[in-house]
Every structure is written in structure tokens, then in C-alpha cells.
Design brief:
Blueprint: E1 11-12, H1 18-22, E2 28-33, H2 36-41, E3 50-51, E4 58-67, E5 73-81
Antiparallel strand pairs: 1-3, 2-4, 4-5
Length: about 100
């Protein structure tokens, strides 16, 4: 979620998806990239937490999964959405009368 400034910028720790992506296989290394070319070249991996530049608030990240034993790898894409922080409105006063 975005912070109180609602500017579309928010730090995101994409590594929370690592276990889901690798099915918790310790022999697989996951890195995140802004372009398919960077993912294929294993270059310019994003530093976590990654903070987007604001617009758009939905962006694609390229995920590289590499076997640490063989060096074989595959890539996939993941969409990241930065949602607005929900608005909080003050409640109306609660009034109750004691009848006894």
C-alpha cells in the first residue's frame, strides 16, 4: 500500500514471494529485474526493498530463477500493484440514553 502522501511510491520487498516461486527449493536463486534483457543477462538485479518511481502504480517485474548447481535458469513476469492507502473517516458520535 501507498503511504499517507498517496503519490504512488512505496517500497516493496519482492523476496516475500521467493518461497512461493521456488516451492522452497534451496537450490534455486531468485532475482528481480526491470527488463527481460536484464533478467536474461543476470544484470541490474533490484535491491530490496525496491521503491518504484511513482507512475505507473502497476508495473511488471521480471523474475529470474537460477539453479545454483547447474546455472540453468528460467524467467517469468510478476505484476506489482501499489494500492492507495484506504481512507479513514471519523465515526459519527455514538449516543445512548439510559432509560432507568
Amino acid at each position: 500500500c501507498d503511504d499517507e502522501t498517496a503519490d504512488g511510491v512505496a517500497p516493496v520487498d519482492l523476496t516475500v514471494k521467493n518461497d512461493e516461486i521456488t516451492i522452497s527449493n534451496p537450490d534455486l536463486n531468485v532475482s528481480y529485474h526491470l527488463t527481460q534483457g536484464d533478467a536474461d543477462a543476470d544484470a541490474n538485479a533490484l535491491v530490496m526493498p525496491y521503491t518504484n518511481t511513482g507512475t505507473p502504480t502497476s508495473y511488471t517485474v521480471f523474475v529470474r530463477v537460477e539453479d545454483i548447481n547447474t546455472g540453468c535458469y528460467d524467467t517469468t513476469q510478476m505484476t506489482v500493484n501499489i494500492n492507495d492507502t484506504p481512507g479513514v473517516f471519523p465515526p459519527t458520535p455514538l449516543e445512548i440514553c439510559d432509560t432507568d
